[in-house]
Amino acid sequence: AICGHGCKFGECMGPNKCKCFPGFTGKTCNQDLNECGLSPRPCEHRCMNTHGSYKCYCLNGYMLMPDGTCASSRTCAIVNCQYGCEEVKGEVQCLCPSSGLQLGPNGRTCTDIDECSTGRAVCSYNRRCINTFGSYYCKCQHGYELKYVSSHYDCVDVNECVTNTHRCNLHAECLNTEGSFKCRCKQGYRGSGFDC
Fold first, then answer.
1. How far apart are CA 159 and CA 109, in angstroms?
2. Is 134 within the bounds of a domain?
3. 185: which of 23, 53, 97, 142 is 20 to 30 A away, CA to CA?
4. How are beta strands 127-132 and 135-140 bridged, if at all?
5. DSSP symbols for 131-148
6. How far is the C-alpha of 146 from the C-alpha of 5, rounded, in Å?
7. Is 191 inside a domain boundary?
8. What's the first-to-final CA gap in the chain, in angstroms?
9. Can you tell me the distance from the alpha carbon of 1 to that of 15, in angstroms, rounded to the nearest whole number?
10. What compartments host this protein (predicted)?
11. Span 162-180, mean pLDDT?
């Protein structure tokens, strides 16, 4: 292979055909290739063309990674987040994995939000709220029990008079109420129903 004009920064591959070394272009490989103008861009933030090559630079607060990307110089490991982090406008922010958790005063650990006391919890009238770490659940109110009724689970009234879980006096009768019970002294007796 003979290249009459020569190949300045490349090698002759055929009659007057040059194969340029990386970073060079042109018929005789004598022109510098501006890598900064290529698409996709080789640098994430700033690019500077050099003879036969290019250099990447990052904005303040970032450091250059081997692949040309810019990573925050204050990485999650340095910030020491409890559950991981994200970058927002160049700032590292710790994250909490659940909406029932909030970032603590130190900005690294997550603290529980008590949905029951803050009123964020939604439980039906016959259920009470039980707070858990990062969430909550609805438990049947006292006097109700969870039963599978008409193809779904629901909290139904416990009949304390039938289950014999009332504390009525021996001389009183038990009257079941929604979620509770009442005791009434039998005829010939008087008192609260618990004492006759």
1. 46
2. no
3. 142
4. antiparallel
5. EETBEEEEEEPTTEEEEE
6. 91
7. yes
8. 120
9. 5
10. Secreted, Extracellular space, Extracellular matrix
11. 89
Q: Rounded distance, CA 174 to CA 25, Å?
A: 99
* Contact indicator for 179, 157 with CB cutoff of 8 Å: yes
Residue listed under structure tokens 């050099």: 50
As a whole number of angstroms, the distance between CA 131 and CA 187 comes to 46
Place of tokens 């016959």: 126
Q: 82 is in which domain, residue-wise?
A: 35-112
| CB neighbour list of residue 96: distance below 8 Å, 6 or more residues apart | 83, 102, 103, 110
- What tokens were used for 74? 């204050």
For the stretch 53-67, pLDDT in tens is 888 888 776 777 777
CA–CA separation, 167 vs 79, rounded Å?
59
Q: Quick one: tokens of 64?
A: 């250059």
Q: Is residue 170 part of a domain?
A: yes
Go through the chain and tell me how many residues it has.
Answer: 196
**143 within some domain:** no
Distances (CA, A) of 189 to 105, 167, 182: 62, 17, 16
- Note whether 177 and 184 are within 8 A (CB): no
pTM of this structure: 0.47
Residues 6+ apart with CB under 8 A from 177: none
pLDDT value, residue 97: 75
* Domain match, 107 and 166 both: no
